[in-house]
Amino acid sequence: MLLVIMVAMTIESRRQVRRYFDTFGDAEWDRLSGDVAGRVSLEVHRRFLARFVRPGDRVLEVGAGPGRFTAELAALGASIVVTDLSPVQLALNEEHLRGGAAEASVERREVVDVCDTSRYADGEFDLVLAYGGPLSYAFEQAGDALRGLLRVTRPGGLVVGSVMSLLGVWRHFLPGVVTMAEDIGEDTNDLILRTGDLRHKGDQDGHVCRMFRHRDLAALAQAAGGEIVAAAASNWAALGDPGALAALEADPDRWARFLEHEIAACQEPGAVDGGTHILFACAAQNPPVY
Fold first, then answer.
1. What is the pLDDT of residue 206?
2. Which residues on adjacent β-strands are paired with residue 160?
3. Using alpha carbons only, how large is the chain's radius of gyration in Å?
4. Structural domains of the chain in order of their starting residue, each with its CATH number
5. Whole-number Å distance between alpha carbons of 15 and 129
6. Are 237 and 192 in contact (CB under 8 A)?
7. 230 pLDDT band (50/70/90 cuts)?
8. Is the pTM of this model over 0.85?
9. Strand 79-84 relative to strand 58-61: parallel, antiparallel, unpaired?
């Protein structure tokens, strides 16, 4: 009975997520370009991804959104099956890439829930990309979802993705968290900080997700038959004073130096929990022979 209730909760939560991103529309495209911290985050994500993609790789992109990283995958020489839970986001993906060189690298686009990748064959892809936090929207099914992503990845391949960071979000958005706690009560806020589950806010129409500590993510990977082989925060120092960042960005040499330091800092073990997202690469522990 408990399992039935949990599955029902997840299905309704997924519907809420789809409605949210359908409504959010093209604002998702602007999220990584609208301010200086977003532009740093885009660079952190780009460089992390470039460590693992090789020319000729066939990639399943889950939660592709309007196409920021579809274009990056194409630039890295990958062939891409583009998927998203939101039909609106998939349409925007095609709109943003239409007429550009990246579109030639797209095999097809499909509406796919990260919790159900059963349409794909075992070991079909060289790499799965799950940026934008799709596993943060899988809730109780996150372990099964990651297991499914590992299943469709070839032996020796990787699942590269991101999840929302519980400790980093708490640190960066503390004023908003304090205000939220006043509205929902400290007991509910304590529950959110223990579980990372924003559904406890009780907001039926707003943004809900599950945030992770790095140790939670490592445990999830292990339970799914995988292991985290690389991780990074997004961002670290770039979550600080926007004025200082703007001054750096205005000087190309200083900006390039800052990005090198920032990306190195994001990979430090002590920093991984400190950004708004945790980036990861996950490999199967004991890959089957297909």
1. 76
2. 129, 281
3. 18
4. 2-284 (3.40.50.150)
5. 22
6. no
7. very high
8. yes
9. parallel
